[in-house]
Design a protein that fits this description.
The chain is of the alpha+beta class. Helix content is 36%, strand content 27%. It is built from 13 helices and 27 strands. The strands form 7 sheets. Strands 1, 2, 3, 4, 10 and 11 form a 6-stranded mixed beta sheet that branches. A hairpin with a 2-residue loop joins β15 (252-263) and β16 (266-275). It is elongated, with a radius of gyration of 30 Å. It starts with 5 loop residues before the first strand and ends in a 21-residue tail after the last helix.
Length: 602
């Protein structure tokens, strides 16, 4: 009989950790090698044997081309690793790490483990979450829930805080990703208020800065470029990781790398040192890069730094003194160091596993979706259905309509992002509603429903309210974002916000112009020569119509004049309408714009 124990797994970029609830408290499970964390490294020996964890990391120097590290950064993408002519996806490599953690848990518990809660960065998109779930399935685990890493850390921090009410900010700087989440804790309810982050920023980047510095120093002194020497680079990587760790405790770190490489003159060694001040100077831009998401999360949560009661540090890279100093300066308070930054995520995952198993009942977790979701509407506008930082699980329906007379098919284009225009956001999926009855445009009522489950995975349904025709889709992993797209969305949204708004206004004006032209043509056809109407109202419509047609006929581009001509035709049609209903006379109407013709009913 399968165990009902639910393990919590922090599937990290550089290190992973597994834990379980015992006696009402989460406990880290010690690995077969006697360690509390496991390197997220997979190696393949020359004979084809697979090695995972500490053993894989130890052989990386002598076997760099057959060792895979930091695969988490590629989750949800089409990236592949080829070993012995066999192609492996990021999910498969991640599954090998999960299998190792599963085996360690089974050895510790003395029984089979089949259920787990697995964490992922809060800023993981839908494809990356799907990929994480797939990795668990490949590893033989039923993934009960995908939980955001900062949220898991908050659970680990706040579980024993009783009924204390507080607002906390979790600053999670791991090996490969950076997340920040703001949560309120009150009477056992953990509610995420906002989240932000950068999926390409972490301890690996600090290591790389040191590697690049040492390569440059070696090139300057020895005239040898190490860039294409895989074995030398792997030795540099291991040495610089140790140097980074040393500089969190000491002011200077000595670097000794004998027999790093050789040339005609014999073997070459590195004997040098680096100070903490030099390290801080080299990595200042990385530390500063973490403060942007912090400010974004505060803005989204409508909070000031002073309103944050506690800043909780998670991830090994938060041990860097410059990182802690930056946080202290920004919040004017010391960050919390009461939880182990390497283990907090796994501990929180175990807590959540026990909640799902019914063992812990006094805790309620309310998480959020990190990016807005919506569809493309007329003119290439991105219409948001679910805004970012909406509490999940959630479901929202928005009505839309057709843009052409007699339209029998509607394409529903699902996107994710923050830009006003669809083309600047990430396309997740497309599907079609076919067989809609032929009626004039604007008549059909197409209801589009977005459901986001507790894992943050998206399901979309389109339905024609009149005919009952329905089509549903679950966003598939293949639609994952590329390496830098998630981080660029927020930056570009701010950078291009004004430009997007202006372009959106002009697109809407052009759509409205086309709609009013059709209305004017129908009105003139029906009421020209109608004796009961003062002909001046018909003439006003004709003049406004011709002016608008002339402008649109000159160019495909919109211009500032378009909005005024649209307003002019709108007023003329309103006056004509009043004249029809008042027996041929109408007072001059005050301008009253009709609803925006983006064909989205709000």
């Amino acid at each position: 009989m399968a165990s009902e124990k639910v393990i919590g797994i922090d599937l990290g970029t550089t290190y992973s950790c597994v834990s379980v609830m015992e006696g009402g408290k989460p406990q880290v499970i010690i690995s077969a090698e006697g360690a509390r964390t496991t390197p997220s490294v997979v190696g393949f020996s020359r004979s084809g044997d697979r090695i995972v964890g500490h053993l894989a990391k130890r052989q990386a120097v002598t076997n760099p081309s057959r060792t895979i590290q930091s695969i988490k950064r590629e989750m949800g993408s089409n990236y592949r690793v080829t070993i012995d002519n066999i192609s492996y996806s990021p999910e498969q490599i991640s599954a090998m790490i999960l299998q190792k953690l599963k085996a360690d848990a089974e050895a510790y518990l003395g029984e089979e483990v089949t259920k787990a809660v697995v964490t992922c960065p809060a800023y993981f998109n839908d494809a990356q979450r799907q990929a994480t779930r797939d990795a668990g399935q490949i590893a033989g685990l039923e993934v009960l829930r995908i939980i955001n890493e900062p949220t898991a850390s908050a659970l680990a921090y706040g579980l024993d805080k009783g009924n204390e009410e507080s607002t906390i900010l979790v600053y999670d700087l791991g090996g490969g990703t950076f997340d920040v989440s703001i949560l309120s804790i009150a009477e056992g309810v953990f509610e995420v208020k906002a989240t932000s982050g950068n999926n390409r920023l972490g301890g690996d980047d600090f290591d790389q800065i040191l590697i690049d510095w040492l390569k440059a120093e070696f090139l300057k002194e020895q005239g040898i470029d190490l860039s294409n020497d895989l074995m030398a680079i792997q030795r540099l990587k291991e040495a610089m990781e140790k140097t980074k760790i040393e500089l969190s405790q000491a002011m200077v770190s000595e670097i000794h790398l004998p027999f790093l490489t050789a040339d005609a003159g014999g073997p070459k060694h590195i004997e040098t040192s680096i100070s903490r001040s030099k390290f801080n100077e080299l990595t200042t831009h990385l530390v500063e890069a973490t403060m942007g998401p912090v400010q974004e999360a505060l803005k989204d949560a409508s909070l000031s730094p002073e309103q944050i009661d506690h800043v909780v540090l998670v991830g090994g890279s938060t041990r860097i003194p410059a990182v802690q100093d930056a946080i202290k300066r920004f919040f004017q308070k010391d960050p919390v160091k009461s939880i182990n930054p390497d283990e907090a995520v796994a501990l929180g995952a175990a807590i959540h596993g026990s909640i799902l198993a019914g063992e812990v009942q006094e805790v309620l977790l309310l998480d959020v979706t990190p990016l807005s979701l919506g569809i493309e509407t007329a003119g290439g506008i991105f219409t948001k259905v679910i805004e970012r930082n909406t509490t999940i699980p959630t479901s929202r329906t928005m009505p839309f309509t057709t843009t052409e007379d007699g339209q029998t098919t509607v394409e529903v284009h699902v996107l994710q992002g923050e830009r006003e225009l669809a083309k600047y956001n990430k396309s997740l999926a497309r599907f079609f509603l076919e067989g809609i009855p032929r009626v004039p445009r604007g008549v059909p009522k197409i209801e589009v429903t977005f459901d986001i489950d507790a894992d943050g995975i998206v399901h979309v349904t389109g339905k024609d309210a009149g005919s009952g025709i329905k089509q549903s889709i679950t966003i598939k992993r293949a639609s994952g974002l590329s390496r830098e797209e998630v981080e660029q969305m927020e930056r570009e949204a701010d950078e291009y916000a004004k430009q997007d708004r202006e372009q959106k206004e002009m697109i809407n004006a052009k759509i409205k112009a086309e709609t009013l032209i059709l209305e004017a043509e129908r009105a003139l056809s029906k009421y020209s020569g109608f004796d009961a109407i003062d002909p001046k109202y018909v003439e006003h419509v004709k003049i406004a119509l011709e002016s608008l047609r002339e402008l649109i006929g000159k160019t495909d581009e919109t211009s500032p004049e378009l909005k005024s001509l649209v307003a002019g035709l709108d007023v003329a049609l309103l006056d004509l309408g009043k004249a029809i209903y008042t027996g041929g006379h109408a007072e001059k109407s005050e301008h009253s714009e009709t609803a925006d013709s983006i064909h989205a009913e709000t």
